[in-house]
Each structure stands twice: as structure tokens, then as C-alpha cells.
Amino acid sequence: MRLYAAVALSGFKRYATYRVATVAGVFTNTVFGFIVAYTYAALWDERPHLGGYDLSQALTFVWLGQALLATVALFGGGFQDELQERIRSGDIAVDLYRPVDLQLWWLASDLGRAAFQLVGRGIVPMVCGALAFELTLPGSPLTWLWFLLSVVLAVCVGFAVRYLVALAAFWLLDGTGLSLMSGLLCMFFSGMVLPLNVFPGRLGEIAEALPWAAMLQVPADVFLGRRHGSAVLGALAFQAGWVVVLFAAGRALQSVATRKVVVQGG
Amino acid sequence: MAEPLPRARAYDGLRAYALIVAMWVRSTMAYRTSFLIMAFGNFAVNVLDFVAIALMFSHIDTLGGFTLAEVAFLYGTSGTAFGLADLALGSMERVGRRIRDGTLDTLLVRPVPILAQVAADRFALRRLGRIVQGALLLGWSLTRLDIDWTPDRVVLVPLMLLSGAVIFGAVFVLGGAFQFWAKDASEVQNSFTYGGTTMLQYPPTVFADELLRGVTFVIPLAFVNWLPALYVLGRPNPLGLPGWIGFTAPLVALGCAAVAGLAWRAGLRTYQSTGS
């Protein structure tokens, strides 16, 4: 356990080193936040209460998306590229020798990265948004707590999805195409391009049941207080359920993949 | 060695650019499947982006007073112009990496303009996907729109695509020049390139007046498609500017290119190798 804490800490420190890049990222998130906020304002102006959100909630959703984009790694990247490269180059053989669990090792480092990006890239855009627009911020400290927990679970789901994509590099020579597709699906079905409750009819219902919903839509709804009381537990259970399923899938794929490495003789 | 004439230098630069691009295209085609997947992905990213707008229109008839076909016209013109610039100069965002790891030095010793080398570096033909998507959407919108096609409107459409591409191209070069000072800040450039094209996909009427003034008079992104498109669509300018201002897009584009060229030279002059 102490080992994984150390790995997480080094993940945090590693991303904390790129100060200029962090500032640049915050700037970009804020610019996009403004652009998207104006378009949503126009949409909710035409249709107040669309998808059950009022204007203020819709704008809050925009800024939450920008604040969590890097934390949950909605467009992929982070450890995913690194692991893929290690698989492609064969360095993964060294990792498999280590007396640590491969999945937990990368999870720890990704949690460290996410923790830094939540602080480094999440807070400033959110504050900018709150200064420029009237946002719906949780009143009770308990909601903040549930939200934080929900974000941790969102990061875990995001990790598990990217872990599966990265492991595909064992079979594909070049995983960039798959990574791109995965990032695409994630942006679309997480609610990043449009909140899932605005998706029409069946498409909306399906989208809200998919794992990507656990990465942005669910934490945002917890933040907005749309799920309170026991519904919060339901939302967290939905996320936790996908964490378990996707982690198990990652393990299964990993064991198949590592057997393949042995067959190749390293 | 005498400094060659500017015209000869420009010709040399373009020729070198074409040669390097041809080399990268050959190298891309060595992994044909990978190329096709990536090109499709580039296409699909933007399709999903527009699907989101179409989903918005499943709830509304007009956004900021514009219909879906009109928004598609804005999206198509912005997407095509941006796609052309991205194809030609998108590699500029890698300058920072080359400065950091010192490989820019390799380019400096070659007798070829640096800008041509950097712009053609790892030329990504897959970016055609975005142009195709933008052009298809533009074509679709033209079949749906009821426009009074006077000759000046007909001329303005290709004119705005070209000037738009040049304006976005200038932003890419400016972003590249900026990286000589802020090596890790390549993401700032995304605010103006990707952010710019995202903004221009929506009607100008949804944005605040200060933002409109900013992109008209400070960073003239409004000339990429908004101002010419307002004229083509026969709509008034939200800032009260006259319609003919759309026709000044080529001049604005030339101005942007000149500024970007000067900035690039200034940036290059400040370059000091990492020294290792």
C-alpha cells in the first residue's frame, strides 16, 4: 500500500513540474468555457428547463466539463500513451518482472496525475466561470463531499477504459487509431459535447447507462444537486459498478495479453 | 554568400515544403490501414461535433435566430478554412518540442527556410478528414439554404474559404513564433485555433458584444467566415457594421500573414539552442 501511495505521489509531482503547460491548459479551458457557455445560454434561452436544467445549471455543467476535462482525461492521453509505447517497444517485459501489480501501479500513478489536475486545472476555470456567470454551487458541505467521491470514481472509470485501450496495443501494431476512436466516444457519450439529458429519447436513455456517463454526467448531476438523498448513493453505485466491471475486464485482458508475451518469448 | 532575392527565396521555400510533404506522404502510405483509420477518425471527430449541434436543433428551430442550415453553412465554412490551414501548417505546434529537445538545430543548418521545414515536419495527410467533413457540410447547407445568388455572393464563398485558411494559417505561425518565448505553452495556441473554429461554427448573435468586438478588431477571426457569411446570408451585423466589410477578408488575411511572418522572424532571432 505504501508503495502505491509513493507511485501516486510521484504521479502528482510529475505533472506539477509542468507549470507553464498547466497555465496554458487553464487558459485554454477557460476560453472554451466561455465559448460553450454562450452557445448553451442561447440554447436554454430558446428552451428554458431543457433536460431538466435551468440556465444556471446548464452553465455550471459547461464549467464543470472544462474543469474535469483534464482530471478525468476525457480525451485520453496520460498514462495511456506511455503504456502503449512500453508495450510496443517491449519494455513492458521489464514491468511484468516487477513484484507489483501492473494495473494497480498504473492506477496509482493516474490517481496522482488526476489529483494534481483537479487542483491545478480545475479550480481556476471554475472560479472564472463563477465570476462571469451565475453558477449553481452546492450549498451544503455534504454535497461537495459526495461530488469529490464521485470524481474519484469517475477518474477510476476513465482509467479502466484507457487501460483496456492501452492493452489493445498487444495485438495492434499501432494503437493511435483506437485511442482516437476511444477519445471520440468518450467526449460524445460522457456529456462533454452536450449533456446526456439533452439527448433525445432512446439515445439519451442508452447514453446514460453506458460507462462514459460515469465520467462526467454523473459527477455533474451530483454537483448540481439533481441527485440528493438516496439517489446520490444510486449514482455512486452506478459508477462503482462500472469500476468493478471494467477493472475485471482489464484484469482478464491483461492475463490473456501477458500469456501472449510469454508465448512470444519476451 | 549573397542573400538571394526574396522572390527566389519564397520559391525555394515552397519547393522545399512540397518535397518534405511528399516525403511524409510516402512514409504515411507505408501504413495504409493506419492512415485510413486516422483520416476517418479525423472525419468522425467533426461529424460527432456537428451531431451535437443537430441534437440541439432537435429541441429548437433557431439558435440565436439562425436555422440549422445557416449554422451548417457557418460550420462548413469555418471547418473547411480551418482544415486547410491545419493541413498546411498544423505541424507548427510541434516547434516547442523541437526547441526543448534541441532538434531545431538540425533544421537551422540546412539551406532551406526554417518555416518551410517546420510547417512540413511530420505532415499529416489524415487532416484531409476535417476538410472533407467541412466541405460536405457546406455543400449540404447550400442545397438547403434559400440564397439570392448574386455574382458578388457567388464570388464571396470561395474568397472567404481562402482568406479564412490564410487567417487561421497566420494564427498557426504566430503560435509557433510564440513558442520561442514560452516553450511549454503550445496549448495556448489551441484557444485561438480550435477555440476559434468552434466559436465561428455558431452564429455571432449568441456571443456577447465585447467578444464580437475582440474577434473583429483585435484578433480578426470574424473575417474567417462570420462577416462574409452574414453578407451571403443577407443578415445584419450584430455590431452594426456595414455588409461590405465581408469583402475586406482577403486584405485582413494578407495583413495577418504579414504580422505572423514578422513575429516568426523575431522569434527565430531570439532562439538560443539548449546547448547540450
UniProtKB/TrEMBL annotation, chain A:
Transmembrane intervals: 20-41, 61-79, 114-133, 145-173, 180-199, 231-250
Domain of life: Bacteria
This protein's UniProt keywords: Membrane, Transmembrane, Transmembrane helix
Keyword Transmembrane helix: yes
This protein's name: Putative membrane protein (DUF990 family)
Lineage of the species this protein comes from: Bacteria, Bacillati, Actinomycetota, Actinomycetes, Kitasatosporales
From TrEMBL, chain B:
Residue stretches spanning the membrane: 35-60, 72-90, 154-182, 211-232, 244-264
Organism phylogeny: Bacteria, Bacillati, Actinomycetota, Actinomycetes, Kitasatosporales
Superkingdom: Bacteria
Keyword field: Membrane, Transmembrane, Transmembrane helix
This protein's record includes keyword Transmembrane: yes
Protein's organism: Streptomyces himastatinicus ATCC 53653
Protein name stated in the entry: Putative membrane protein (DUF990 family)
Pfam families linked to this entry: ABC2_membrane_6 (PF06182)
InterPro entries, alphabetized: ABC-2_transporter-like (IPR010390)
Record bears the keyword S-adenosyl-L-methionine: no
